[in-house]
Amino acid sequence: MDSSRSAQRAVIQFLGPEGEHSSQIYRRMKEVYGEHCFARCTIFRWCQRYDVGRVNIKDLPRPGQAHVVINSATISAADELMRQNRRITTREVAVELSISKGTVHHIIHKKLGYGKVCAQWVPKHLSKNQKTARWELDPSATQEFLH
Fold it and tell me: Cross-referenced PANTHER family, in alphabetical order (predicted)?
């Protein structure tokens, strides 16, 4: 059984004009869809929308900024800024790329995996080559550092 949102809205749209009350539609849908069924208040809200003349079962576009800021070009630009100046702040990156500080924070920490150490941005996880180079600089490092 298709429990998608549009399928459930189609059922509400079909049963409403047949004279079914909202609570009866909810009971019938709960039997069919089980835990994937819309909440009771959602079914009541959609019944009201169809009663006043709505015919579309698809979501309408919502206002607000689209989430297209975090893309490969923005990530690579932020990475390039970080590599040029390890002491750059998130505010400076945000101004340079014309994006919000929160987006810059997400890119730096989640996408690039950087963290602040002594006021410099460094990768949180060292690569195998970086671990080996570090061990060669300090032979007293233990073997478990390489793992």
Answer: MARINER MOS1 TRANSPOSASE-LIKE PROTEIN (PTHR46060)
